[in-house]
Amino acid sequence: xxxxxxxxxxxxxxxxxxxxxxxxxxxxxxxxxxxxxxxxxxxxxxxxxxxxxxxxxxxxxxxxxxxxxxxxxxxxxxxxxxxxxxxxxxxxxxxxxxxxxxxxxxxxxxxxxxxxxxxxxxxxxxxxxxxxxxxxxxxxxxxxxxxxxxxxxxxxxxxxxx
Length: 162
Hints:
Elements: E1 4-11, E2 16-19, E3 50-57, E4 62-72, E5 80-87, E6 100-101, E7 110-112, E8 121-122, E9 134-140, E10 154-161
Antiparallel strand pairs: 1-2, 1-3, 3-9, 4-7, 4-8, 4-10, 5-6, 5-9
């Protein structure tokens, strides 16, 4: 039977984990399934950081070769999405992450480990949560970023399963 996977987001100062989120929208608030129109980002400001990870359930043998990148969607003027793989959770804030721009090709994709730090996620292994390490994402803007909604982006997560 193949794995079932879903996205999870962690929020708050005490790290509240929500599995099965519906979107990874950026905004001026630390919340999951965010409605961007309710939490606008002012030009020149940053979104709150997003701490997301993939959770594997069902029955599988091994998940490996986990990669993440932005595969489609244009960045607007003065707009950048930063990303770090296998980040340590910290209370999300709008302070600049200091991370590099998200990769835009599979060849430069971020490599993810398991939450426990291994290169693979083995079903039923001792101490295995089924989560990947954290991806820390942030939308950063400049004063030249135009007002209004940004273009939709496609973020790709790829993995091998045996």
